[in-house]
Design goal:
By secondary structure, the protein is an alpha/beta fold. The protein has one domain: Alpha-Beta Complex (2-enoyl-CoA Hydratase, Chain A, domain 1). It is built from eleven helices and ten strands. Strands 1-2-3-5-7-10 form a six-stranded mixed β-sheet, with helices on both faces. A four-stranded mixed β-sheet has the order 4-6-8-9. Helix 4 crosses helix 5 and helix 5 crosses helix 10. It starts with a strand and ends with a helix. InterPro entries: ClpP/crotonase-like_dom_sf (IPR029045), Enoyl-CoA_hyd/isom_CS (IPR018376), Enoyl-CoA_hydra/iso (IPR001753).
């Protein structure tokens, strides 16, 4: 199975379970996330939701290009992009706090998934970046919209997106993207982070979450995320994008032969 859904002590966890593919998102993972969200949206017993990746190398490396590279036109790419944007909007508007446990590299769409969460608990050894620009596209799952809503400085957000660079955990903390940087065992760090919030009744967290999501409705966040997906789909069909992806996949194949 490409994903795992677990419920433990009023905490629901969705784990992307494709470590050999650096936890890249494919259709099965997207469908699993949809199932996870459906189980949480009306579930008043869940106090916290967690998103993470299997292993210790990657949180998520974005979309699986070996599957999605088959999309050549905007019309072919948009359904996938808008579907994932819709899922991430639902993730961001879950009624309970949502925590991304960034236990390894988070790049491209992986950063978008983490950005849709309320908190990003990042391992000190992890690195992350909105590297979509290196493939001649923009974020396509609504991640830019999430950042412009959540980060306080416009220039930091725009720089984070448009430079398409990889950042260290400490740099991400300074930019305001990482909520907390943790050392040692990822699960222990997550448990400590959640334990500090457990002393407050879950209804308090849910009430503040309602305030936040009401604001996102007023700011048309969902519609803006879908429009972001549409803009990405237009770049997706460009020759520059297809060439960049082909070069990336060729490089990846060459590197695999060297191992």
């Amino acid at each position: 199975m490409s994903y795992k859904i677990e419920f433990n002590d009023n905490i629901a966890t969705f784990t992307i379970n494709r470590p050999a593919m650096r936890n890249a998102i494919n259709t099965e993972v997207m469908d699993g996330l949809a199932s996870f969200l459906a189980q949480l949206e009306e579930n008043e017993k869940i106090a916290f939701a967690v998103i993470t990746g299997s292993g210790d190398r990657a949180f998520c490396s974005g979309g699986d290009l070996t599957e999605f590279h088959g999309y050549h036109t905007a019309d072919e790419a948009f359904p996938m992009l808008s579907k994932m944007a819709g899922l991430l909007y639902r993730l961001s508007t879950l009624p309970m706090p949502v925590i991304a446990l960034v236990n390894g590299a988070a790049v491209g769409g992986g950063c978008e998934i983490a950005s849709a969460c309320d908190y990003r608990v990042v391992m000190s050894t992890a690195k992350a970046g909105f590297i979509q620009g290196t493939l001649a596209i923009t974020s396509g799952w609504g991640g830019a919209t999430q950042l412009f809503e959540k980060l306080s400085r416009h220039d930091h957000t725009l720089k984070l997106l448009s430079e398409a660079k990889i950042h260290t955990a400490q740099q991400l903390k300074e930019l305001g993207w990482a909520t907390e940087v943790i050392e040692g065992d990822a699960q222990v760090g997550l448990d400590c982070f959640i334990d500090r919030m457990k002393s407050i009744h879950p209804n308090v967290h849910r009430s503040y979450k309602r305030v936040a999501t009401a604001n996102w409705v007023n700011n048309n966040v969902r519609e803006r995320m879908v429009e972001e997906a549409r803009q990405c789909s237009l770049l997706w069909e460009s020759e520059a994008h297809h060439q960049a992806v082909a070069e990336f996949l060729n490089k990846k194949t060459r590197n695999s032969y060297k191992r």
